[in-house]
Amino acid sequence: MSIDQGQSFGPGATIGILGGGQLGRMAALAAARLGYRTHIFCPEANSPASQVVAATTVAAYDDQAALRAFAEAVDLVSFEFENIPDSTAEFLAALRPTRPAPRVLHIAQERLREKDFLTSIEVPTTRYMEVARAEGLERAVREIGRPSVLKSARFGYDGKGQVRIDADTDLSEAWTRMGADLGILEGFVDFTHEISVIVARGVDGTSTVYETVENKHRNHILDVTIAPARLPQPVTMKAEAISRHIAEALDLVGLLAVEMFVTGNGEVLVNELAPRPHNSGHWTIDGCVTSQFEQFIRAICGLPLGSTERHSDAVMKNLIGEEADGWREILAEPGAKLHLYGKAEARPGRKMGHVTRLSPKS
Ligand code: AMP
Question: Which residues does ligand 1 sit against, CB inside 6 Å?
Answer without folding.
Answer: 126, 149, 156, 159, 186, 188-189, 194, 217, 220, 259, 271-272
